UniProtKB/TrEMBL annotation:
<keyword id="KW-0472">Membrane</keyword>
<keyword id="KW-0812">Transmembrane</keyword>
<protein>
    <recommendedName>
        <fullName>Peptidase MA-like domain-containing protein</fullName>
    </recommendedName>
</protein>
<feature type="transmembrane region" description="Helical">
    <location>
        <begin position="18"/>
        <end position="39"/>
    </location>
</feature>
<keyword id="KW-1133">Transmembrane helix</keyword>
């Protein structure tokens, strides 16, 4: 009995010691966990507070921008950034900015806070809605890594590094000059050689009045935006294609720029036909992206360019004749498009003649309904012709074939 007692006591003491040690460790670990959790929660609270302050600052900057308050715009920007932000302010105001929708992500740090910022802007748009696609990184989104100092409810921007500033209209990074009319804003790089925005404005205003008659959005586009590209901007956007004279850059469903090669061979600030074509694209396509059916898209733009003028005045009529003779054309109107420069002008011309014939035979309102269904809604020519023109597509082609053949033989 005595021996059994002597054997049991050490085990009991060891167990008691382990229990005591475990208890101490539990208390220590529990305390450490509590401290860590408290610290994490405090850090998260500081981060959320900083993000709210940064976001509120961006909202105030946007409000100052939209009301034309340059001082308010610069009031939350460190002096070293004031030059870049003054230039950005001038460009946005010059392009008739109508919306400023900021978003912040990845806010971290302290006392200097890093934040990823994306700001969607709209230009001359009747509305600028926030949608799931708002921040798709297209040409009218400002994307930047930023740094801020935050004290209380005040944030000051101390670092601003933009990304994705490429594009044919360098409003994010270069100084632009402007001329503003009733329906058009003409912009250009500050040191563009040759004609100025003011010289291009009268023809652009006349072209806009014509394009407005064919606008397929309600309300109509805000002011049309025309950018006069110098050689560097044109080379960046188009490359070595010297036959093109202009194109439309649709950066989103609400914004589009007519980009003109202003220093290329043959550039003419009085070329109302060219401007009608490009503004016609904006009037008929705004609100959509990535349309196919180039024969209808380009044909309609050419139709608008030559609205009210006889077919005999059409400058590409010889290209249409070449196409008819060299392809053995048999009356098809919805021709397959080609990127081959040797075929481009013939296809432009045939698209124009197709639209001109439909308007002549079925009426211009029906032509616009047909275009809407084919280009904006993606219907086939036959589906669209039956509903919009009241005839199957084969009948429309049969009607237009002799008319177009007669035009090209004159």
């Amino acid at each position: 009995m005595i021996g059994e007692v002597n054997i049991a006591r050490p085990a009991t003491r060891r167990t008691d010691r382990w229990v005591a040690v475990f208890g101490v460790l539990t208390l220590l670990c529990g305390g450490f966990f509590t401290l860590s959790l408290t610290y994490s929660r405090a850090a998260a609270t500081r981060s959320q507070s900083a993000e709210r302050t940064i976001r509120a600052t961006l909202d105030r900057q946007g409000a100052a921008l939209l009301r034309g308050d340059r001082t308010g715009w610069l009031s939350t920007v460190e002096e070293s950034l004031s030059g870049d932000w003054a230039r950005l302010y001038a460009n946005l105001r010059g392009l008739q900015v109508s919306g400023w929708l900021p978003r912040t992500r990845g806010v971290a740090g302290g006392p200097v806070w890093d934040a990823e910022v994306q700001i969607r802007v709209c230009f001359a748009a009747p509305s600028c809605a926030r949608t799931p696609e708002t921040y798709v990184p297209l040409g009218d989104v400002i994307s930047a890594r930023t740094k801020w100092t935050v004290r209380g409810d005040r944030a000051v921007l101390t670092g601003f590094e933009q990304s994705a500033t490429d594009g044919p209209v360098p409003w994010k990074s270069e100084t632009l000059t402007f001329a503003t009319g009733r329906r058009v804003v003409v912009a250009a790089p500050e040191h563009l050689p040759g004609a100025t925005p003011a010289q291009w404005l009268p023809a652009a205003e006349r072209a806009a009045q014509v394009a407005d008659r064919y606008a397929l959005t309600e309300p109509k586009p805000g002011r049309y935006l025309v950018f006069l590209a110098g050689r560097p901007e044109w080379d960046t956007a188009v490359g070595t294609d010297r036959e093109a004279a202009a194109f439309v850059d649709r950066t989103s469903e609400s914004t589009a720029f007519a980009v003109v090669d202003a220093t290329g061979l043959g550039a003419d600030f009085a070329d109302e036909i060219l401007l009608r074509h490009e503004l016609g694209h904006i009037a008929t396509l705004l609100g959509t992206l990535d349309n196919g059916d180039e024969w209808a898209v380009e044909g309609m733009a050419e139709y608008i360019a030559y609205a009210g003028r006889p077919v005999s005045s059409y400058e590409l009529i010889l290209d249409a004749r070449w196409h008819v003779e060299h392809t053995g054309w048999r009356g098809r109107l919805d021709l397959e498009w080609s990127t081959d420069p040797s075929e481009r002008f013939g296809l432009y011309a045939m698209g124009f003649l197709a639209m001109r014939c439909i308007a002549q035979e079925y009426g211009e309102p029906r032509l616009l309904n047909f275009f809407t269904e084919v280009v904006r809604r993606g219907e086939s020519p036959d589906e669209a012709s039956r509903s919009a023109l009241g005839a199957p597509w084969v009948a429309v082609e049969r009607t237009c074939r002799p008319i177009i053949a007669g035009w090209v033989k004159r």
